[in-house]
Amino acid sequence: MGILLAASGILLNVLSVSSEVTILDYLSRLAVILFLLLATWSGLRQVVFSEEMNSNRIYGAICIYLLLGVTWSLLYNLLHTADAGAFSGAITSSSRESDVQWLYYSFVTLTTLGFGDILPVGPVARTLANAEAVFGVFYMAILVAMLVSAYAADRQRNN
């Protein structure tokens, strides 16, 4: 399933660039978002259901956090492409700079830092930003609790 999503995302991206058809651009981004969500879900299962406490579990948890930030940034980019008025503030029009700015905005929101240089003003943008901030806080709280619990159980098993 993952390979199919990745291949379709690449193919749709090539087609959208060569033909400049807007719907192909949206479908390409959606395929990439679905692929990242699938990868995140797969990694999350490994981190949550792993039996032993080791460094791979911690690295996996960090990777999931980073994948979530990238996925949210693609959602913001997609929303901004569909509705240019969804955000206000320091938004650039260059596509390469746009990718970087949405990645920046996503991690500022995920960590609940919130500098305020880019503002969600549309209802969908606000909903996405709120969901990401809440998810970021809960992920960190649950992750730390889960890893501490797994570490304590592993130590108890080994003693």
Question: Which helices and strands appear, and what pairs or packs with what?
Answer:
Elements: H1 2-19, H2 22-49, H3 55-82, E1 87-89, H4 95-110, E2 118-120, H5 123-158
Antiparallel strand pairs: 1-2
Helix pairs in contact: 1-2, 2-3, 3-4, 3-5
Write structural notes for this entry.
With 159 residues, this protein is mainly α. The protein has helices at residues 2-19, 22-49, 55-82, 95-110, 123-158, and strands at 87-89, 118-120. It has two domains: 1-49; 57-159, Helix Hairpins (Orthogonal Bundle), CATH 1.10.287.70. Helices cover 79% and strands 4% of the residues. Helix 3 packs antiparallel against helix 5.
Distance between the termini: 42 Å
Low-confidence stretches: none
Strand coverage percent: under 5%
Strand arrangement within the widest β-sheet reads 1-2
CATH class of the largest domain: Mainly Alpha
The CATH topology label of the largest domain is: Helix Hairpins
Secondary-structure content class: mainly alpha
**Judging from the principal axes of the Cα atoms, what is the shape?**
flat
Radius of gyration: 18 Å
What's the CATH architecture name of the largest domain?
Answer: Orthogonal Bundle
Count of individual domains: 2
Q: How many separate helices? A: 5
The sequence of SSEs as H and E is: HHHEHEH
Estimate percent helicity: over 70%
Mean pLDDT metric: 87
